């Protein structure tokens, strides 16, 4: 064999694949024989591809190449998440228009991915910043609008003062910072566009049963949606001077439910200024000793006339507005102000309890008001301790505990609930509340509606119009796309830059009416990335986001790889988009990604996260340059389990390169005169079995390890049969496709190997044959062992010594000599 020259080989095959359109998506596929493989849409950053991208794309590509060899019709495409803040921030930093810098970054990414030999259909590439793409992002927005799922609302929003834009909850880190620039996020009252994802909360939880995703991912998404079963309970709130009168009036409460509606009760509560709380523990109502209203909500405002210390309350409200929600939920010293002049009546016993406002209650969750049970809720406990409020235990734990008890137990101090275990007590209290018009069972979600409008330039314009009276109108579908103008100063000011574009508003009045103008905000980039996998199916269609036939053939996605950081954003939004399409009758499935796995993080050689700061960044292009794409691919897969975080190791890269070279030069040993030994034949079948099973289960590292073992054994042989060697090449080809194509051709094949059938194994031959070994101590047979036929001398001796029977006969004595007779006997002399 001539020298192994990856650069030459790799360029040759990449050109060949491109020219002969090897990886063009097969035209005639049906749902039963297609396989849709999806690498997560990358954001094309100016700094190019990193090793983490290469890891995900290689994993997908191995799967894609493997599935083709198994006869599947494969769809694999890559596109660009090219709108959004990072591109815009980069453009601002470098003072180059985002369109120019984005297109340049895309060119670099594309070239780098091609250099890795990823087998995608480049005819289907899409970029979310292109008008023929974002036309359909806008169409999706209109679909939501028409279905009552897009609305404007004024409320407190997350505001990043540095990026000068609103952020979705999913874009704020656990530390309350902007995920892009690390600035502490503030709250601002603003009117914004929202998508009503909460309408789908229930289905988004339930349908998680339909997908094969990592358990932890499913749990994280379920927790984020946050389903709580509980009850709404009404508490009357009265002025202090009226307490006596009100108590009398309370007796006139409508009696038991006599008809199916609760109208009478609603009227009663309205007249009485009742406040409804959401609780997951209605069984603790007898222990509710005070009530708290969220400072920023309107409940406190409604009581303003009755509150006698309004100045103090107002000051507290203003202080709260400066804090982020997260800050408020952190375990800090509790603060709050009592609303003097009002009291609430605990509905179960008519007791008068104080009403407070405190920032640990959030206006947007539940009803924005809570009943406080300090004996059984930690935050209430801390609060009650600090402000000296009464604590009444109403749930008895199985074992006496000190302090607050938040678990389940048996009700006590609770009249008609006494003696009931928590679950039954909850059910009984719920029944009682409903019968007495005092409450209703309720399911509550943590998920909020998704804020999608951004006061930035680099995004899809929201396709809405305002008339002269500020009335809203959707842009007619035939007028899409609403083009992103070019005459814009894109530097952020906090106001939508599109407001100042002449071309953006030009002709709007003439076309739509006097005084009409366009919505100047743009869509959050996650709107673009929530549906890209549909566009890959039919990227040039200008009549629909994808044709019904393409949708029917290719969806749902069979295998999706992405990082674990998008669980509560992108993955959730994509599922929502899919469900809306399903409800609109446009598709026949309601989950987009059947099988989903995450790739792990590749760390620097120093075991730290790769970062310019640590000077430990490995650039895949450098690795390709020095060792070749096949080595880069195979090394990244050999590093460890796909989903594990693992450090880079240059020695490991060299090791994999040596492995490939040894496979290359093994071709020199091909000879077809002697048939393979039984041992080699068995190992071949075992390797085919193991690699097949490992690839199916994405255990790429152990698949490579098995091929290395096979190589070692074949290398010991004088001669290797052509057919054995070809099997190794076929197995290795998804990992190191260029080299394997070259070898395949050198072996005399006319067709390239991308569609060559995957090797099959004979299960009987793949079985490791077993033999029986006799074990003697001082010449006498003392035990027999069943071992693999190809057991090594070392293992045979070790096993013999470990045998309990033999240990007994040795009786603690050190063996002087151990003799092994291959396949027959271990003889120990003491
Ligand atoms: C009384 C009670 C007694 C509660 C008890 C808990 C334990 P999850 O499970 O997260 O849904 N809560 C309700 N609305 C709130 C708001 N806007 N801000 C802060 N806290 C709020 O939690 C529901 C529980 O969180 C509710 O049940 C309420 O406290 C509190 F032994 O009511 B509970």
What does this entry look like structurally?
By secondary structure, the protein is of the alpha+beta class. It is 37% helix and 17% strand. It contains 30 helices and 28 strands. Strands 6, 7, 8, 9, 10, 11 and 14 form a seven-stranded mixed sheet that branches. It has a four-stranded parallel sheet with strand order 2-1-21-22, with helices on one face. Strand 21 (559-562), helix 20 and strand 22 (596-598) form a beta-alpha-beta unit. Helix 1 packs across helix 27 (737-746). It is globular. The two termini are 53 Å apart. Bound molecules: ligand ANZ. Ligand ANZ binds at residues 228, 278-281, 284, 294, 361-362, 365-366, 368, 370-371, 373, 376-377, 444.
Low-confidence stretches: 254-261
The helix count comes to 30
* Alpha-carbon Rg, integer: 34 Å
Shape descriptor reads globular
Bound heterogens, unique: ligand ANZ
Mean pLDDT: 92
Class from helix and strand fractions: alpha+beta
> What is the assembly state of the chains in this entry?
single chain
Offer a few descriptive terms:
830 residues; alpha+beta; 7-stranded mixed β-sheet; 4-stranded parallel β-sheet; 30 helices; 28 strands; binds ligand ANZ
In short:
This protein is of the alpha+beta class.
List the helices and strands and how they pair.
Elements: H1 6-19, E1 34-39, H2 51-69, E2 73-76, H3 85-94, H4 98-115, H5 131-146, E3 150-160, E4 165-167, E5 186-195, H6 201-206, H7 215-225, E6 227-239, H8 243-250, H9 263-272, E7 274-279, E8 290-293, H10 298-302, H11 310-321, H12 325-329, E9 337-345, E10 352-357, E11 369-372, H13 378-387, E12 395-396, E13 410-411, H14 422-435, E14 439-445, E15 450-451, E16 453-454, E17 464-466, E18 472-474, H15 502-505, H16 508-512, E19 517-518, E20 522-523, H17 525-529, H18 532-535, H19 548-554, E21 559-562, H20 570-583, E22 596-598, E23 602-603, H21 620-627, H22 629-638, E24 646-647, H23 650-666, H24 678-696, H25 700-716, H26 722-732, H27 737-746, H28 763-766, E25 770-777, E26 780-788, H29 793-802, H30 804-810, E27 817-821, E28 825-829
Parallel strand pairs: 1-2, 1-21, 8-10, 21-22, 23-24, 25-28
Antiparallel strand pairs: 3-4, 3-5, 5-15, 6-7, 6-9, 6-14, 8-11, 9-10, 12-13, 16-20, 17-18, 17-19, 25-26, 27-28
Helix pairs in contact: 1-27, 2-22, 21-22, 22-23, 23-25, 24-25, 24-26, 26-27
């Amino acid at each position: 064999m001539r020298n192994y020259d990856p650069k030459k080989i790799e360029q040759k095959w990449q050109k060949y694949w491109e020219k002969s359109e090897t990886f063009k998506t097969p035209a005639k596929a049906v749902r039963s024989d297609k396989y849709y493989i999806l690498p997560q849409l990358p954001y094309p950053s100016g700094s190019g591809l990193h090793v983490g991208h290469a890891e995900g794309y290689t994993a997908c590509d191995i799967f894609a190449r493997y599935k083709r060899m198994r006869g599947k019709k494969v769809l694999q495409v890559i596109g660009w998440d090219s709108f959004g803040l990072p591109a815009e921030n980069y453009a601002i930093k470098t003072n180059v228009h985002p369109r120019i810098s984005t297109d340049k970054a895309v060119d670099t990414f594309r070239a780098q991915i091609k250099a890795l030999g990823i087998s995608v259909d480049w005819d289907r590439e899409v970029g979310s910043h292109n008008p023929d793409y974002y036309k359909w992002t806008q169409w999706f927005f209109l679909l939501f609008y028409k279905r009552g799922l897009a609305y404007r609302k004024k409320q407190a929003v997350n505001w990043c003062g540095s990026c000068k834009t609103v952020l979705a909850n999913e874009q704020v880190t656990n530390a309350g910072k902007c995920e892009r620039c690390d600035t502490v996020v503030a709250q601002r009252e603003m009117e914004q566009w929202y998508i009503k994802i909460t309408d789908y909360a229930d289905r988004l939880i339930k349908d998680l049963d339909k997908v094969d995703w990592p358990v932890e991912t499913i749990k994280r998404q379920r927790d984020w949606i946050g389903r709580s079963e509980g009850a709404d309970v009404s508490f009357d709130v009265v002025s202090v001077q009226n307490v006596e009168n009100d108590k009398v009036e309370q007796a006139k409460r409508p009696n038991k439910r006599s008809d199916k509606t609760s109208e009478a009760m609603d009227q009663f509560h309205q007249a009485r200024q009742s406040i409804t709380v959401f609780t997951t523990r209605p069984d603790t109502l007898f222990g509710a000793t005070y009530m708290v209203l969220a400072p920023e909500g309107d409940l406190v405002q409604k009581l303003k006339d009755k509150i006698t210390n309004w100045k103090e309350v107002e000051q507290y409200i203003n202080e709260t507005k400066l804090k982020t929600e997260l800050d408020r939920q952190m375990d800090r010293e509790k603060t709050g102000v009592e609303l003097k002049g009002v009291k609430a009546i605990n509905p179960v016993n008519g007791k008068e309890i104080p009403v407070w406002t405190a920032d640990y209650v959030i206006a947007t969750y539940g009803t924005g008001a809570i009943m406080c049970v300090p004996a059984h809720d930690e935050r209430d406990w801390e609060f009650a301790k600090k402000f000296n409020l009464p604590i009444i235990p109403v749930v008895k734990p199985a074992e006496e505990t000190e302090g607050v008890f938040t678990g389940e137990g048996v009700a006590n101090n609770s009249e008609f609930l006494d003696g009931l275990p928590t679950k039954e007590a909850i059910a009984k209290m719920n029944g009682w509340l409903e019968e007495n018009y005092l409450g209703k069972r309720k399911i509550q979600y943590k998920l909020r509606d998704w804020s999608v409008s951004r006061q930035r330039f680099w995004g899809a314009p929201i396709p809405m119009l305002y008339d002269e009276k500020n009335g809203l109108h959707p842009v007619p579908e035939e007028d899409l796309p609403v083009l992103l103008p070019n005459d814009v100063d894109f530097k952020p000011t906090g106001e939508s830059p599109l407001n100042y574009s002449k071309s953006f508003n030009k002709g709007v009045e003439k076309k739509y009416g006097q005084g009409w103008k366009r919505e100047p905000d743009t869509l959050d980039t996650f709107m673009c990335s929530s549906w890209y996998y549909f566009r890959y199916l039919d990227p040039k269609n200008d009549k629909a986001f994808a044709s019904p036939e393409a949708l029917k053939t290719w969806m749902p996605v069979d295998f999706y790889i992405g990082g674990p950081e998008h669980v509560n954003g992108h993955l959730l939004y994509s599922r929502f988009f899919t469900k809306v399409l399903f409800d609109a009758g446009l598709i026949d499935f309601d989950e987009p990604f059947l099988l989903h796995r995450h790739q792990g993080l590749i760390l620097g050689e120093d075991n730290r996260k790769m970062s310019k700061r640590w000077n430990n960044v490995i650039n895949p292009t450098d690795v390709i340059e020095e060792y070749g794409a096949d080595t880069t691919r195979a090394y990244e897969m050999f590093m460890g389990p796909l989903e594990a975080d693992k450090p880079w190791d240059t020695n490991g890269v060299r090791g994999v390169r040596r492995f490939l070279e040894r496979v290359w030069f093994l071709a020199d040993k091909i000879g077809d005169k002697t048939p393979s030994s039984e041992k080699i034949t068995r190992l071949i079948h075992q390797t085919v079995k193991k690699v097949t099973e490992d690839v199916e289960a994405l255990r790429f590292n152990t698949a490579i390890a098995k091929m290395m073992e096979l190589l070692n054994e074949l290398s010991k042989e004088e001669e290797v049969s052509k057919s054995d060697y070809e099997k190794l090449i076929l197995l290795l080809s998804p990992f190191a496709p260029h080299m394997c194509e070259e070898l395949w051709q050198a072996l005399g094949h006319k067709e390239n190997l991308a569609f060559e059938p995957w090797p099959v194994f004979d299960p009987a031959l793949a079985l490791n044959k077993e033999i029986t070994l006799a074990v003697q101590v001082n010449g006498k047979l003392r035990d027999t062992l069943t071992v693999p036929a190809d057991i090594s001398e070392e293992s045979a001796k070790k096993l013999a010594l470990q045998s309990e029977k033999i240990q007994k006969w040795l009786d603690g004595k050190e063996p002087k000599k151990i003799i092994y007779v291959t396949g027959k006997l271990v003889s120990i002399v003491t």
